[in-house]
Every structure is written in C-alpha cells, then in structure tokens.
C-alpha cells in the first residue's frame, strides 16, 4: 500500500472513530443535564420534548404578561453517563426556567386583609384562587361534597400594580397553600373559609347507670353488672371555619342499637352485728398513735392516725355530710351519715373541704390533716358511731 493511501486511511480513521463514538454516546438512551443560559434547570431524557416545553412556556409567559418579546436563551444539553440521577418533573423544570429568566413583568400584588399573599398576572387569576381555595379544605377534611349546604369565603381582597421579577410570580397552588398556612393561626388569618354541611354519622351511646339497693349485701359492699354501649344514628349541621369545627347542632337522633344499662347493687344490711369490715381507711398512710378505748382514766371514742400536716382525709364510705364545724375538743370536724344509724367522724382537720348536705363517695377528698382543737400534733381522730354510740372502728376497716 502506498504512503498516500496509508495517510488517507489514517485520516479517515482519526475522524470517523471519534465521530462514531460521539454519535453512539449522543444517540444512546440516557439522561441529559438541561441548561438555560448556563443555569441547570433539570434532568431530562428527551431533548426534543424539553425544547418544545421551553417554547410553550415562553409563549405562555408572553401571553400571560403581554410581553412583546423575550430574548432568545441558549439551550444546552449535556449527556450524563453512568449516573443514577432522577429525572426532573415538568413542574420543577418550569419553575427553574422561570428562575433562570432575569426579566421584569407587569404583575399585580394579590393582597388579602392587608397582607400580600403572592403575585398574579391579573385580577381574574386572583378570583380563581379564592374560588378554588375551599377545595383544599374539603380535601384535607375528607368532606363529601354532597353534604355541603353552602360555602362562603370572607376576606378583603385588593390588587396593586407592580413591576417584579418573573421568579416572584407564584403558581396558583403555591398561593393557595400560602393562604392555608396563614389561615392556620388567627393572628395571621387572611381569609375566612366557612363550609356548612349536613352530615349523618353513627355514634356510640353510653349506657346509663342504675344504682339499686339490696339487703343481700352488707353496707359498703357492692356488685357491678357491666352494661353495653349502644349506637345512635345522628344527623348534624356542622360549620367549619378554615378547616376547624366551630359549630355542631344535632338535627335528628335515632337509636339503632339500644344501650344496656350498668347496674350497681349496693348493700344495705348492717355489717356491725356481724363484725364485717366495710370501711376504707380514711388516710392514705400514717399509723395508729392512740387506739380506741380507755385513755388517761377516760374513754377515747375513736382512734388517732398520725399523718403529715395537710395530708388528705378521704370518706371511709359513701354518705351525706351531716355536720361541719369547730369543736373545742375535735377542732375542725366533719360527720358523715351512712344510713342505718351509722356515722363516721373526722376530727382535728386543718381544713374541711366538703359542705353540709353534700353527697360524697367512698375515697373522695373531704379534708386535710391538722392539729386543731385539743391536739398535741398533726393527726386524724376517726370515730365510728352506731345509733349515736361510738364503737371501735379498727375491726371494721377493710
């Protein structure tokens, strides 16, 4: 082979091989970095589609903001090899193109209750935003549109002509989300979206409680027969303001499953003759410092329970407050009537918390430990009386 042919072959090879490699790389499916005027606006896999989208967006801007012309931008596509970059969404690319275009447009500041919530191209766009705003609350509240009676959007809307950079123009969705965010607090609220609806729901109904007396149980004993919840079909008129329930009125209520009542059987049989314990300890802690019985040549009619000053005193049994007052011996005292001639007495309290005539439950707070009256230190004097006579309470405390 002559030197001329060899040189021609070398030249052809030096040109064709790089060209083939370029074509292979360029035509091989892959991801491109899409740039506008040197600024990356996204990652795409179809250059033709990207160019068309760019042209459509520029046409949209020209029409929307009545622009006569926009300077041509330099579109650049760089092939990315061996990368796992995710493709950009069309919305992201559109926003990035908008940010890359350093142009001024005639827009309107969209003002609600004296706060700028965004910039729009014209008044009609602002009206559409307010019209569509309730849909976001309907969607987030999972409201069935068939139940809606009315929708009201209350706000003071204004529009102010301004020349702003294109990238300050927000999408309708972005402005709506901004309004929702501002409305989440009453201090920053810019619009009141009121949605009134008529809703039908099934609600649980709590069982009633029936208390019945029985002579088969001793005083202080009780048996509880559990009930069952029922179900009611309830028709309500509800008003939501900015997604929060502000008013709810029951229009109709129909029982579909009747609740079974709770029955509490309470004993009435006198436990004293049978020496059956029926009283709760009237303090949470403490210890007996002086028992019932003879003391210093006299009878001590109750037992003293040493406790910290201010410690709680609780009712030893359900009863009615028969007396509260001050006595030189008992100090601040309280008497509970439990029926069947049975009473309990609580003395030397620092404070009485129950009022005469009040019904109190076993374990309910009725006073606080003190050292009033004839007392040498903080303690509770506790008595048990039957038909006016004091008896030893110790054996009747559970």
Automatic annotation (TrEMBL):
User: What InterPro entries does the annotation carry?
Assistant: Cell_wall_metabolism_enzyme, Dup_hybrid_motif, G5_dom, M23ase_b-sheet_dom
Question: SMART domains, from UniProt?
Answer: G5
Segments traversing the membrane? 7-25
Q: Name one GO molecular function term.
A: metalloendopeptidase activity
Question: This protein's superkingdom?
Answer: Bacteria
Keyword Nucleotide-binding attributed: no
Query: Taking every annotated instance into account, which residue ranges of this chain make up the domain G5?
Result: 190-270
**Gene3D superfamilies, alphabetized:** Glucose Permease (Domain IIA) (2.70.70.10)
**Cited SUPFAM superfamilies:** Duplicated hybrid motif (SSF51261)
Family matches, as Pfam families: G5, Peptidase_M23
Alphabetically sorted, this entry's keywords are:
Hydrolase, Membrane, Signal, Transmembrane, Transmembrane helix
Keyword Transmembrane helix attached: yes
What PANTHER family does the entry give?
A: L-ALA--D-GLU ENDOPEPTIDASE, PEPTIDASE-RELATED
What name does this protein carry? Murein DD-endopeptidase MepM and murein hydrolase activator NlpD, contain LysM domain
